[in-house]
Amino acid sequence: MASLRGTLVAVLCATLLPHQLTAQSAPRPLSLAEALTLAGASSESVALAKAGADRARGQFGQARSALLPQVNTTLQWQKQLQNQFAALTERFGNQDGGNNGGGADTSAADNPITRIFASQYNFNFGLTATQPLYTGGRAMAGIRAARLARESAALGITSAEAQVQLNVTTAYYDAVLADRLAVIADSTFVQAERTLRQVQLTRDVGSTSEFELIRARVTRDNQRPSLLQARTQRELAFVRLRQLLDLPADLPITLTDSVVESPLPPAPATSAPVTTVNVDAASVLAPDPRVTSQVSRVVAQSDTTNAARTAVLQARKEVEIAQQNLRSTRALRLPQLSATTNYQRLAYPQNILPSSLNDFLPNWTVGIGLSLPIFSGGSVTGQIQTAEAGLVEARQRLKLAQEGATLDARQATLQLAESEAAWQASIGTAEQAQRAYDIAEVRFREGISTQLELSETRVQLQQALANRARAARDLQVARTRLTLLPYLPLSTAAAPAAAPSNTGMSR
Fold first, then answer.
1. CB-CB contact of 418 with 346 (8 Å)
2. Is 120 exposed, middle or buried, given 0-12, 13-18 or 19+ CB atoms closer than 10 A?
3. Which residue, among 507, 292, 313, has the nearest Cα to 421 in the 3D structure?
4. φ, ψ (nearest 5 deg) of residue 193
5. Tens digit of pLDDT per residue, the chain (507 long)?
6. d(CA 196, CA 461)
7. Cβ(153)–Cβ(55) under 8 Å?
8. What span, in angstroms and rounded, lies between the C-alpha atoms of 154 and 53?
9. Which neighbouring-strand residues pair with 360?
10. DSSP state at residue 264
């Protein structure tokens, strides 16, 4: 019975285990829309931007508290191990007792004031409130600066999300391109292998020389490094995509979106026959009006002005923050006026703790304080100079951001035009290269052409297919970049130098 049970278990394992392995290794289909959703939920840069926004909200709350009353409470219990007032009372109390014969009712020890100072235990409960009355504009400047910093941090979240979308789109189409190039490399290697076998067959019947066989083998072997490199690049592209999406590194995925799309309508064919070899350079080098129209349509759907760029808006807010910092720093030379009140209940029990509420004595004070700096050793002057320099730097960074935004928009538009033209040109070239290779293969098989002609045609086909795949990838990325341009950070070449944090207000 045990052996039968063991046999059944082995059969079930042998039957179910391959299905489980197949289910685990089945590639996961992944679309670009799903990739963008996954990246938005797991992006580290977006999480950092949100943390910065939370910090800015906290700083705004701190700045706003400068105008509100500050209320604090204290509770203190104290025991004196040695008390000078108790010792003094004991000394003079004994002297008074000796002189009066010990019969005096009003000795120093029975004095209520003496009991307070000479008490061994002290219990104090206090409530203090402070209300600023006049700060010279420092508090309002701090609130305005904190509010501007909070708005800038919110723009930072939008910018980070747009950058993540562009990064994921680029990585997605890079993986599609790498997969396409690997397929092209596989196909080219198979074509070279087919040519080698054909030459081997003709060599076996004595129709081809050993030189032709060696050249076919060398051509096939020369394709192997390209094949291995294409496979490596494909694996690295998929690893990069999985990292951006926080997917397991060994999870197989299948990309469902392709970069191939329908070309523009063909240009009308010219009916005039060719009668001369002379070329009009202006007409030949003129841009394709179809490409220009397509680029204009995409550009019209995106706002490429400087006023719409998130980076420019953030730089403008940095200028306003620097202005508020300067206003707050200059207010250090003005007087500060505040009202304070302090309410206390004090007890001086004979034992460790008071026996009742009646043991607590009230103490309540109200006051107005005025603070005016007279001499600070140059500290205030130095802070004002620092704030003025920060304002100058912020204004210059704003100009750099505006110039960078103009360059960035122009670059994105030109890249789109270049990608659109390259994509349209690659379509016809790929079909013609495929047709030329089919003809060359037939010619070689029939013995009309040479192996060199076939190899050159194969290389041209591989190059044309690779150029088409790259052009399609570049077109998709260029369109996405131009669409997200208002929210993207400035490119590395156009971005100004990073500014030190200057949102904190001096207190």
1. no
2. middle
3. 292
4. -65, -40
5. 444 344 433 433 443 334 444 445 688 899 999 999 998 888 889 999 999 999 999 999 999 998 999 999 999 988 888 877 777 777 766 555 555 544 444 555 566 776 777 778 888 899 999 999 998 899 999 999 999 999 999 999 999 999 999 999 999 999 999 998 999 889 888 888 888 898 888 888 877 788 888 888 888 888 888 889 999 999 999 999 999 998 988 889 999 888 655 555 555 555 556 666 777 677 767 777 778 888 888 888 888 888 889 999 999 999 999 999 999 999 999 999 999 999 998 888 877 788 777 778 888 999 999 998 888 889 999 999 999 999 999 999 999 999 999 999 999 999 999 988 888 888 778 888 888 888 888 888 887 878 888 888 888 888 888 888 898 899 999 999 999 999 999 887 666 665 555 444 444
6. 18
7. yes
8. 6
9. 347
10. P
Taking the CA atoms of 246, 249, 252 and 254 in sequence, report the sign of the dihedral they define.
positive
CB atoms within 10 A of CB 129: 15
CB neighbours of 287 closer than 8 A, spacing ≥ 6? Answer: 417, 421
Per 3-state DSSP, the chain is made up of helix, strand and coil in percentages (nearest 5) of 65, 10, 25
Using a 10 angstrom Cβ sphere, with 0-12 exposed, 13-18 middle and 19 or more buried, the burial of residue 342 is middle
Cα(237)–Cα(174) distance, rounded to whole angstroms? 6
Tokens of 489: 């950070």
91: tokens are 């000394």
Alpha helical stretches, state H, 66-137: 84-99, 112-118
- Both tokens of 302, joined, read 């995106």
Q: Do the beta carbons of residue 63 and residue 142 sit within 8 Å?
A: yes
Residue 268's CB is within 10 A of a number of other CB atoms, namely 6
Distance CA 476, CA 420 (A): 9
